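Researcher: Going back to the complex we discussed earlier. I've cleaned up the inputs and rechecked each line, so this should be the final set. Can you rerun the prediction on the complete assembly and write out the structure?
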Amino acid sequence: MPFAKCKVYSDGSHYIAIPPKPQKPWPKKGAKVKKEAPDLEELDDDEAEDCPFDKPAQPVQSVQLSLFDGEKNDDKQGESEEDGSKNEQTCKENEDNTASKPSRKEIFEQLYRKHINDNYKKRKRAIIQGLLPHSKNYDDAKLFTELNLRRKRNNLIARRIRMTRKANLQDFTHFVTLTYSNELHTEESFKKGLGDCLKNLSKRQGWKCMGVWERSPEKQRLHFHGIFYIPEGTMPGQMLDVNDYNFKSHRRRITHQNTYFNGRFGRSDFEEIADDEVLGDAMSYIMKYIEKSGERIVYYGDLPQFFVSDVMENDILCPYGEDGQKFILADTFGCWDEGEYVGQVSKETIAKLPKVN
DNA sequence: TAAATGTCATGGTGGGCGTA
DNA sequence: TACGCCCACCATGACATTTA
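Model: Rerun complete. Updated structure for the full complex:
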């Protein structure tokens, strides 16, 4: 008995199939969802003894449990009319969140960016201190910081998973660095111009790219690092081998530059991805950078996370994940689209199957 | 602690159109 | 034909929750 319409992704060494699950009904908008105080066990235990939930004598409800402090709450205010005191509090907080005054979340984001290079404990301490003037007390600031740090961590994990899955389904051809020249661009026009250019190349020439905007540590100059899939014959301009001096390694080296990008933006470096090692290095570079900086990954072109295929039982190597609800597939499994055999798994076969993002 | 997964709001993407 | 710009819509990121 086959498993129809499984979502299949690659973890880099194996393909994993996720059979479709019946969806759980989601609470309707406005429905009351019982919110519980966060479990202390889940919080970081480095300073757990300070947490207000340890002390029954202190009223728990006085602590703001929302991640957002009433911003985005405008439309929710009318939903719980019965809780007058709570509403009063929310209204007061919303008054505080006028256009001129940043919300606590915005202050958190600023502090988070400011202390991005500190280690976890130091950063947490600094954010709590920074939030103290905007909080009822220390416990309030601490809890708000812990909840938002956890949010940041979860988002990073989700970004990392998405990027890895997308990358594993592609055959990238180049690792590219693009830097702008002051004579051609401001930082703003460079970001917009390059974004438009890559968008058009992906739409018109089938380019695919994932990358990050980065500032060089020395000069703080904005540049773009990305891994690209460039279909043969679609490279605009001319490729040049330029004998260049590398200030980091203090050595001369040959860089592969492109006249189209050089003329339009300033400087380009194209390194061919000849093997998995180069791709792995490029991916870990981007991954490390997004972890370090909290920057978003930029995607251009068709980069799905999953392809959809029916899975035959004899192609399953073993169950995987919680209660074996997923399956690790054999290295050479057959792909099926709605009961029709498409071929043995390969990048060419995958290209013929429906995709899911 | 890491990872998976469903839902939702919104920023980014792609299609379409105008211009050179 | 190449490129720039606009805008509707959809993919992404954020969030909540669960699981291993």
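Model: Worth noting: Chain A is about 35% helix and 25% strand.
Researcher: Good, that matches what I expected from the previous run.
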